[in-house]
């Protein structure tokens, strides 16, 4: 039945936030007081998100930044990646993905601000924390402490970046978007390890930064002793209890983790949006005025950019915008609603400090007043399990456990962190098979070419040294690989029964393959938490000459911890046991070394070698081979969206598309089988191991290929496989649409932006659906008003179900990019009077 007052709203534009974006090109002063950053004399409530420019391609920057703005952000935060900007001392690089000026200008064009975290230490799960390796080779250098060679280089790079920004007029005082800058990064976490020199270094870093006259405030995060005027800011999963080190500084949060980074061998972390929203609301409730999501868009660690040990190629971070640049729902939408609710409180938030009113055990209210009258309130239930009803200002409010309600007029709840009313997306590209992803094999078994690498020394540029060398000092980060080789003469007398001996190997990490007489006999590896490992392996030796060849591998240079830069890697101990007389310690023998592998040296990843006769072909590609290179060509699936390469049948290695490194893969490393929870309870404090998925599976099987890296026709794919895999089953995926859904009840809150607080009319709840990528709603797969059951993707009609709901929804939505349907009996009639009703809709967005 259809009611009389048929009112279906179609909203064409996304939420336009109340608030004031800065005018492009006009100079602005940026200062601060104890409440907030002050821009042109006005205190500002600022929502910020981290996007690291090299973690996607420049053609995609505008789209990601637009989605960030539509999600309610005011500021984009990025680190600066020194090692790629100055690959050789004094030689700078700012092209392509590393075009910092273009990135800052792209943010400016979108009308957002920039927080430039120059560091130059970045951490960021980035190779060597962002330090160029040549720095390590400067005689007498010690990183991140009062050390003249280090300070000299750090100062040069800080000045280089600041001057570059000044020349391009990118600071706010010059009409640019940069309102904030950071020096160092989380140094307070490790300062203890550097003693008094660490304290002096903090003083020096602060003075040096301030001396660069950026005209914008500087911050130091996780730095309690940050000297004035530098603002010390908080990083963490919660920062409501944080207070800056001076009453003159505002309470700022520079890293609120939307999830956590992924490491090979680990399960996939995620953070429920209800808890993330809770942490943000608690922060603004308790006096915060600047909050940054780390990451708002995480992206990809292409090539060898990933940090270590063992940081994965995907840097998705469970962020509101996923690795591929698609909006992650309901995370993005729920946070957008939260931002909108906070912005509706802005005039109160910037006016006063909050007044705290205890409302019960684990129940808190914080109120912000204005002199001219009126107030905004945050009501929080911080209990882990118990929901509560509270009385506030004469009214009763229901507060779910671990949630915050926002009342911009001290009366109406326009948002609760635990009530998600934004659209959900069904299945996440490319991780779950949905009808809206297309997958095909990359090449048939017969169209692969291969090259089998030599085991051990492959060229005349090897060298010998006495004892086992530290790997990083030896390879100087020019390759992940170092060959350690030795030949041993086993006499008749020493040869034990059947030639069996025991090989004991100790390594600082991160992985190593063991060959005896050119045959693979073992593979050892560590993990992100501890990359070191030992191997004990029975081996068979021949009478006479035997060769031992060990390929030691690094999976991303360490990026975090005290003195992380000298942590070291590689094999440090080799002992042979079980020989007739005694065990033999080979650690101090003379070893022969070779940096890199033969295929790397030949340049097999390069497009110029695509037709080289080095490559072999045949009727079927060899499977399960160690140290082999594979090559094929493929045509990219149609469309203009990003691509995903499914490497689940491969072992460990690296991949290149048209000569560009798409990253390291390690599909054969399964995560522990325990520790995952299917439904992770968002209630109670979150930590990085609380919510995990994909237990017992590889951390990552799908690898991002940016669309701009492929072209029509044949594209070159090259793989360097170390352990053994099956390339014939590699497939490529693209996204052709998105199934979206929502389930909203009559008693749910109305969309935050539909509130007109001084009007008597209360807005009604709505189902709102939005497609991205310019897709349109092409079908309604389910619609029911009444008592529909089940979850998105598995809805079914309940005992009460109105007639004609489907045609109403179809009329409102089909052919549109977005639609909105009020959840009320006005539109649908009342199929079961007296019963609480809801509207469930599932739709398909596609081209
Ligand atoms: C910064 O400003 C001070 C005072 O105006 C000046 O002495 C100094 O040289 C400036 N430094 C730089 C790096 O511009
Ligand atoms: C809160 O109040 C509602 C309505 O009066 C009631 O149904 C519910 O049980 C109460 N919840 C708690 C936790 O007291
Ligand atoms: C109570 O709510 C009214 C609005 O209905 C508001 O004007 C008043 O300031 C509030 N008082 C307190 C103490 O929150
Ligand atoms: C990746 O390929 C494997 C092996 O063919 C297959 O089982 C898996 O479903 C694929 N994954 C996706 C997301 O397509
Ligand atoms: C090493 O090999 C390269 C190319 O294979 C050759 O040009 C060079 O002369 C060799 N060097 C020595 C010292 O044998
Ligand atoms: C043992 O074999 C290796 C590789 O064939 C060779 O380089 C080495 O000279 C040999 N050593 C002895 C003692 O014969
Ligand atoms: C690497 O070499 C530097 C000096 O060149 C030395 O100080 C450092 O201890 C070495 N690192 C390791 C892990 O051996
Ligand atoms: C390799 O050969 C193909 C087919 O003959 C050709 O299209 C391509 O341009 C060649 N590539 C290079 C790098 O020479
Ligand atoms: C691959 O080869 C290794 C030994 O080289 C063997 O242990 C393993 O079972 C093989 N795997 C498959 C899938 O054939």
Automatic annotation (TrEMBL):
What GO molecular function annotations does the UniProt record carry, in alphabetical order?
A: beta-galactosidase activity; carbohydrate binding
| Entry EC number(s) | 3.2.1.23
EC class name:
hydrolase
Query: What SUPFAM superfamilies does its record include?
Result: (Trans)glycosidases, Galactose-binding domain-like
Q: Which reaction does it catalyse?
A: Hydrolysis of terminal non-reducing beta-D-galactose residues in beta-D-galactosides
| A single GO BP | carbohydrate metabolic process
Protein name in the entry: Beta-galactosidase
Source taxonomy: Eukaryota, Viridiplantae, Streptophyta, Embryophyta, Tracheophyta
């Amino acid at each position: 039945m259809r009611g009389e007052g048929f009112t279906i709203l179609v909203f064409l534009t996304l939420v336009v936030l109340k608030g004031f974006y800065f005018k492009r090109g006009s100079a602005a002063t940026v200062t601060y007081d104890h409440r907030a950053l002050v821009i042109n004399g006005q205190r500002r409530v600022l929502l910020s998100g981290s996007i690291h420019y090299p973690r996607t391609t420049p053609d995609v920057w505008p789209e990601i930044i637009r989605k960030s703005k539509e999600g309610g952000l005011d500021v984009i935060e990025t680190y600066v990646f020194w090692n790629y900007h100055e690959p050789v001392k004094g030689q700078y690089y700012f092209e392509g993905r590393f075009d910092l000026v273009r990135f800052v200008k792209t943010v400016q064009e979108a009308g957002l601000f920039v927080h430039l975290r120059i560091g130059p230490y970045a951490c960021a799960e980035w190779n060597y924390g962002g330090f160029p390796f040549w720095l390590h080779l400067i005689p007498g250098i010690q990183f991140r402490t009062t050390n003249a060679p280090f300070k000299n280089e750090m100062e040069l790079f800080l000045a280089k970046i600041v001057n570059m920004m000044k020349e391009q007029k990118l600071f706010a005082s010059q009409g640019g978007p940069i309102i904030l800058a950071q020096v160092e990064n989380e140094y307070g976490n490790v300062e203890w390890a550097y003693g008094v020199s660490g304290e002096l270094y903090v003083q020096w870093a602060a003075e040096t930064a301030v001396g660069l006259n950026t005209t914008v405030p500087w911050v130091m995060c996780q730095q309690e002793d940050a000297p004035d005027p530098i603002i010390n800011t908080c990083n963490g999963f919660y920062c409501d209890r944080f207070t800056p080190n001076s009453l003159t500084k505002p309470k700022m949060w520079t890293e609120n983790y939307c999830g956590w980074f992924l490491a090979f061998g680990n399960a996939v972390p995620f953070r429920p949006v209800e808890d993330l929203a809770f942490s943000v609301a608690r922060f603004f409730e308790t006096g915060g005025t600047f909050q940054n999501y780390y990451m708002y868009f995480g992206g990809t660690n292409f090539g060898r950019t990933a940090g270590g040990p063992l940081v994965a190629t995907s840097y998705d971070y469970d962020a509101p915008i996923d690795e591929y640049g698609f909006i992650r729902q309901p995370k993005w939408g729920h946070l957008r609603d939260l931002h909108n609710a906070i912005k509706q409180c802005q005039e109160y938030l910037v006016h006063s400090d909050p007044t705290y009113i205890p409302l019960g055990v684990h129940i808190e209210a914080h109120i912000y007043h204005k002199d001219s009258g009126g107030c905004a309130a945050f009501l929080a239930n911080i209990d882990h399990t118990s929901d509560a009803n509270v009385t506030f200002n004469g009214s009763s409010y229901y507060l779910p456990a671990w949630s915050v309600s926002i009342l911009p007029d001290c009366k109406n709840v326009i948002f609760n962190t635990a009530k998600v009313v934004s659209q959900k997306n069904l299945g996440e590209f490319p991780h779950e098979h949905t009808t809206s992803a297309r997958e095909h094999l990359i090449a048939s078994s017969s169209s692969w070419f291969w090259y089998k690498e030599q085991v051990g020394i492959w060229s005349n540029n090897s060298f010998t040294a006495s004892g086992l060398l530290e790997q990083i000092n030896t390879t100087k980060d020019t390759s992940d690989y170092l060959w350690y080789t030795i030949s041993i003469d086993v006499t008749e007398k020493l040869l034990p029964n059947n030639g069996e001996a025991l090989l004991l190997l100790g390594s600082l990490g991160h992985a190593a393959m063991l060959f005896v007489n050119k045959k693979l006999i073992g593979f050892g590896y560590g993990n992100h938490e501890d990359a070191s490992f030992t191997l004990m392996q029975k081996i068979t030796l021949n009478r006479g000459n035997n060769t031992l060849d060990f390929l030691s591998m690094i999976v991303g240079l360490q990026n975090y911890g005290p003195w992380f830069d000298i942590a070291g890697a590689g094999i440090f101990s080799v002992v042979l046991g079980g020989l007739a007389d005694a065990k033999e310690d080979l650690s101090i023998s003379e070893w022969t070394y070779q940096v890199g592998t033969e295929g790397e040296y030949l340049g097999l990843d390069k497009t110029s070698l695509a037709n080289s006769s080095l490559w072999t072909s045949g009727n079927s590609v060899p499977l399960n081979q160690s140290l082999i290179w594979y090559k094929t060509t493929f045509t990219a699936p149609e469309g203009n969206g990003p691509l995903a390469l499914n490497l689940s049948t491969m072992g460990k290695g690296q991949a290149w598309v048209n000569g560009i490194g798409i990253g390291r893969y390690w599909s054969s490393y399964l995560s522990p089988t325990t520790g995952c929870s299917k439904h992770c309870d968002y209630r109670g404090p979150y930590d990085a191991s609380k919510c995990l998925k994909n237990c017992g599976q590889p951390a990552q099987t799908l690898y991002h290929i940016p669309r701009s890296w492929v072209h029509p026709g044949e594209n070159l794919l090259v793989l360097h496989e170390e352990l053994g895999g099956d390339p014939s089953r590699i497939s490529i995926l693209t996204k052709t649409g998105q199934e979206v859904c929502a389930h909203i009840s009559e008693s749910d809150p109305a969309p935050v932006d539909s509130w007109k607080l001084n009007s008597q009319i209360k807005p009604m709840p709505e189902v709102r659906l939005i497609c991205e990528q310019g897709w349109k709603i092409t079908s309604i797969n389910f619609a029911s008003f009444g008592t529909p059951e089940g979850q998105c993707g598995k809805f079914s009609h309940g005992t009460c179900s109105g007639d004609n709901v489907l045609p109403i929804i179809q009329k409102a939505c089909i052919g549109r990019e977005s639609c909105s349907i009020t959840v009320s009996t006005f539109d649908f009639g009342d199929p079961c009077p007296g019963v609480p009703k809801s509207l469930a809709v599932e739709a398909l967005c596609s081209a």
